[in-house]
Amino acid sequence: MSKETIKIFDTTLRDGEQSPGASMNIEEKIQIAIQLEKLGVDIIEAGFATASPGDFDAISQIANRVTNSTVCSLARATDRDIKSAGEAIANAKTKRIHTFIATSPIHMEHKLKMTPDEVIKRSVNAVSYAREFVQDVEFSCEDAGRSDIGFLKEISDAVIEAGASTINLPDTVGFKLPHEIAEMVKIMSEYVRNRAIISVHNHNDLGLGVANSLVAITNGARQVECTINGLGERAGNAALEEIVMALKTRKDVFSEYQTNINTKEIYPSSRLIANITGIEPQPNKAIVGKNAFAHESGIHQDGMLKNRETYEIISPEDIGLDIKDTLVLGKLSGRAAFKDKLSKLGFHLSDEALNASFERFKILADKKKEIYDDDLRALVTNEMTKATQIYELVSLQVMDCSNGLPSAAITIRYEDKEIIDAGIGDGSMDAIFKTIDRISGYEGILMDYKVKSVSKGKDALANVTVKVSFDENVPAIIGHGLNIDTMLASARAYIGALNSYLSMKGKLKLRHTDSSRTV
After folding, report:
1. 298: pLDDT strictly greater than 60
2. Nearest to 378, CA basis, from 357, 393, 401
3. For residues 209 and 233, is the Cβ–Cβ distance under 8 A?
4. DSSP character string of 344-360
């Protein structure tokens, strides 16, 4: 019996980036898009082209690099948005414009201040205009979960007639229960029939995003919109890895359906995105969490020793996880072996980026006895997160006196000059950050600070992520730092955030205080 293929529409680069603190630079987005293609995603929503020049550029570069997956840009139902989306994806081998407008009474009345007839007219115009750029147009009824079913039918008729080939029914606020989603999708799929594909986009505010997506499939949806690690606004989106593995594992229920996902790329995709965004899946997160395949109970361990299937319904190998945390390379390893290993981990770097990463690897190999897959993932993603090196850390000396004030002496390179300064603080970290502020002249407010061990052992790398506000009119900036020494990693993370801020603002002129001195 032939199976129906469920299209996987990944919006990690668009909706996922809206997770607080999950901003990514262009190179990071390109690496994620390449990995999503390797994963087998059908449609990659690469961003919202009109949101910023950076978004437009990222979508354009992804469109030039991706060949197997459809590249999609989001656009509001306006000519300006649609034109920007069409131009951004112009060079994609296969491309889609995803346009949307709110259809619930509360949104139409209070947000749009439009009548239902006006909403339909704008939607038709949007889809018609989008067809001038692409053949594949998706139309979303924003807040479909709280929309009138009669109006959903009416607007679907109109946009399908105008050229939409996918009708998306988002539960925008994560409000619906599974039986309610099932009813809505069943009614709409039976009404639309083969005129268009019915899609769902479920948010996870009540923890039901995946359940709602699965029940939508059994009631006629043939596309699900989701993100890696369940990233997204508020409580996030339905998690791609959970949807796909549920379909694969419960073949007794989902025997009629299949996806194009290569499940062995699920774990590499999860780790890549966690390293880039600094947002780790919770330890007990299904499929990709740190504890997903850990067995501590004596009863469980006994059963596992006798037969893994007693307590394990999914094999770690099915998602590309080597539970041995493979020891991969040493300081005698060459560039070719290094490049080959990175390729297997999902990284495809330019020669310049490869050379920089290889140099960092050699330095690390001299300090660290054993280097694991996660060390390499962290090392390479840390290289990718670097903005233009306006400020570069040269040296750091910290004195944490129990009977005195903690202090930090820092040397930073700027425009081929080395600037030295020292400062005190309420703790070592505070002293480091205040001294960097003194040297640069930019005072940052630390909004968040996270440190985690990348792998195992006393010499494990410290991966530090900071969120810093340098300007109340600009969103807080994320910075990453990696080193065996946590203090050095923290300093690099803070300087990384500062460099990202300055790159964005174009403020390249040094504004350091008179107390700083040039060597």
Report:
1. no
2. 357
3. no
4. HTT----HHHHHHHHHH
For residue 410, give the nearest of 484, 490, 510, 467 by alpha carbon: 490
Cα 405 from Cα 422, distance rounded (Å): 12
401 lies in the same domain as 359: no
Q: Is 393 left (phi over 0), alpha (psi -120 to 50) or beta?
A: beta
69 belongs to a structural domain:
yes
Q: Is the pLDDT of residue 305 over 50?
A: no
**Segments forming the whole domain that contains residue 477:** 392-518
| CB of 267 closer than 8 Å to CB of 245 | no
- pLDDT for 62: 97
Same domain, 331 and 312: no
**DSSP letter at 28?**
H
pLDDT at 21: 62
Q: What average pLDDT does the chain have? A: 88
**Number of domains making up the chain:** 4
Q: By CB neighbour count within 10 A (0-12 exposed, 13-18 middle, 19+ buried), where does 270 fall?
A: buried
* pTM check: above 0.85: no
By mean pLDDT, which of 130-134, 273-277, 493-497 is the weakest? 273-277
CATH code of the domain containing 187: 3.20.20.70
Question: Which stretches does DSSP call E strand in 149-255?
Answer: 166-171, 197-202, 223-226
Tell whether the torsion through CA atoms of 245, 246, 247 and 251 is positive or negative. Answer: positive
pLDDT by residue (tens digit) across 103-113?
A: 999 999 999 99
